[in-house]
Amino acid sequence: MAASRKVTIADIARHVGMTNITVSRALNKPELVRPATRERIEQAALELGYVPNAFARGLKRSDSRLIGVVTASLDNPFYAEMIKAISRHAKQHDYAIMLFDTDSDPRLESTAIDTLLSYQAAGLILSPVSDEPDYQPDYLVRLKASDIAVVQLDRTLHDSGFSAVVLDNLWAGERVAHYLLEEALIAQRRTERDRLLVVAGPERSRITCERLEGVREALSAQAGEVTIDVLWGDYTLAPAVTQVRDYLGRHGVPRAIFGLNQLITLGALKALREAGIGRDQTCVVGIDRLPYLEIFDITVPCVVHDGYRAGAQALEQLLVQMRDPQAEVCTLTVRGELVT
Amino acid sequence: MAASRKVTIADIARHVGMTNITVSRALNKPELVRPATRERIEQAALELGYVPNAFARGLKRSDSRLIGVVTASLDNPFYAEMIKAISRHAKQHDYAIMLFDTDSDPRLESTAIDTLLSYQAAGLILSPVSDEPDYQPDYLVRLKASDIAVVQLDRTLHDSGFSAVVLDNLWAGERVAHYLLEEALIAQRRTERDRLLVVAGPERSRITCERLEGVREALSAQAGEVTIDVLWGDYTLAPAVTQVRDYLGRHGVPRAIFGLNQLITLGALKALREAGIGRDQTCVVGIDRLPYLEIFDITVPCVVHDGYRAGAQALEQLLVQMRDPQAEVCTLTVRGELVT
DNA sequence: CTGTTAGCGCTTTCAT
DNA sequence: ATGAAAGCGCTAACAG
């Protein structure tokens, strides 16, 4: 309420008849101060409503207790899960999170990185707006020149040289494709070639390429019997809906539809529903769990990844690199699991 | 890669043969510097990879471009939506977000606030772990003593004296109850008293009380015909499931079940499903949208609130108060909409 | 155990 | 249009 010029350690020092440094010590390294004085100081700090100034401290000892998280979207529940894990674990190690939702805008990503650098963030968990090879953001040099630890999560830059925690995308694609072969009867009625529709992310996205590669490998032996059609999108719901709608209009119902992430799969399901095509007319599979559907007895077979674990691992790796800047760059791969 | 002692404005100054202050000005108030010099300075800054030090700046001018967001959970999609809005709008005004997920732990909430104060955050959007009257956190004094602008979001502290953006909970409860009366045939078969099961949050939670109050008002004329049973929980899924399961075992299937938030409603549905009770045997209604269900043709009538709008309003209000510390404390109410 | 000194990087006077 | 000096709040490094 009161105007209250900010209370500093000097105020406390005056209050208890000591000098700044003693107060500083009492508050930060209590063991270096006589218990009696310490208590008086702590008491005074409380009374005066002292709040340490992170800027002053950060300026002096150029290290911060800040970890930056830069992600393309909070909408995606999979990302929300990873962020939850990061946040929880960061807290345990006494780091605060500075979160940037870049909204898929490369410029916002760039300013986010700069802000983090200016705040001397100790570490950065980065999931860039794009994992296409020609996305080579200009902030990379600055990031490299700084001594901030960096771990990429899920999406990775090409040749960035930073550590990463990624999903086993090849495996996921393969696994789903095998499931289709074995369980969902693809390529088992020989009257005509089966069509598998894969609804993907951007054409050059690494994640999309890897997942597709997995599909192709799994189906390579069936090359004569299965045609793979691919629709390119951007991992969000809306384009998936319109694209699938369009495809259905043009080519009819394929034998199976594979959505390369959660939102895409939902989009495909939506398009099917709009077109009045029942779940029994085609087989829909995906990557990432569709939340809560089990409650309604709806099953969409999919490879699910443990986002919480991925986030936690990213943070662990980051801590390792923060402790030891020489630590080897490494890529951890999180493998999913088929849930039918 | 290089060792790279940090580049400061002094380095730039040396590089271009000017003094610190000129460099500072060139970078912050370009109009005060001759265009030629300015360009040379900007050029040098780029070359040397200069990154401004937010701590030094913050220390000097005690204002920051930081807005803190403290919330009990990122799990809740409704909160994720609000945070998305906050983040997007903050960015537009050139503020960075410092996000704290308190995991419903009051101590974490308290340290989050202290961290924000120490970082001189310009504003704080707070959704505390509890909105029960006896939750009077100790950080309140510090918050009041500081000059940080505060806006509460959704959950509010009792008598805190801070502005807030809240939902029209009374209306939501009323609206759903009226729907039950009019459409869902509650109190229309007179053979026996109808039972309405409300699955709520904590017993003393303001939001729960308000929503319940709405229900009671709406049904007051039917006091003789409708019994309202209430189960207390904590707005999360798991307890809702077990409580409803238990209730069903004890009292059988009620005429209708009203989940006071999204996760609770899902929990109730899950319990019903586990008990093998079909959607036709009771009427389930809720507050907050159950995402994506329309894709599967599942409808759960509910009052939905626009989380994005609520978040955006909270940030707007915060900006108002940051600009004018004298601005009047105010409470904005966001009304939902019944979706059937 | 406590104090002195000095300086982190930047910006605000007030001069020139 | 540019510069000199001073200081924001805090903490290393060295004394005592």
What are the key terms here?
homodimer, 340 residues, alpha/beta, 434 Repressor (Amino-terminal Domain), Rossmann fold, 3 domains, 12 strands, 17% strand, DNA-binding
What does this structure look like?
- The structure is a homodimer of 340-residue chains.
- The first copy, chain A, is elongated, with a radius of gyration of 26 Å.
- In chain A, strand 6, helix 9 (206-219) and strand 7 (226-231) form a beta-alpha-beta unit.
- The first copy, chain A, has three domains: 9-52, lambda repressor-like DNA-binding domains (434 Repressor (Amino-terminal Domain)), CATH 1.10.260; 63-161 and 307-339, Response regulator (Rossmann fold, 3-Layer(aba) Sandwich); 169-304, 3-Layer(aba) Sandwich (Rossmann fold).
- In chain A, the strands form two sheets. A six-stranded parallel beta sheet of chain A has the order 2-1-3-4-5-11, sandwiched between helices. In chain A, strands 7-6-8-9-10-12 form a six-stranded mixed beta sheet, with helices on both faces.
- Chain A is an alpha/beta fold and 340 residues long.
- In chain A, 43% of the residues lie in helices and 17% in strands.
- The first copy, chain A, has helices at 9-16, 20-28, 35-48, 54-60, 77-92, 106-118, 139-145, 169-182, 206-219, 237-251, 262-274, 307-323; strands at residues 66-71, 96-101, 123-126, 149-153, 163-167, 194-199, 226-231, 256-259, 283-287, 302-304, 331-334, 337-339.
- The mean pLDDT of chain A is 91.
- Chain A is built from twelve helices and twelve strands.
- At the A-B interface, helix 4, helix 5, strand 2, helix 6 and helix 7 of A face helix 4, helix 5, strand 2, helix 6 and helix 7 of B.
- Chain A binds a DNA duplex (16 and 16 nucleotides) through helix 2 and helix 4.
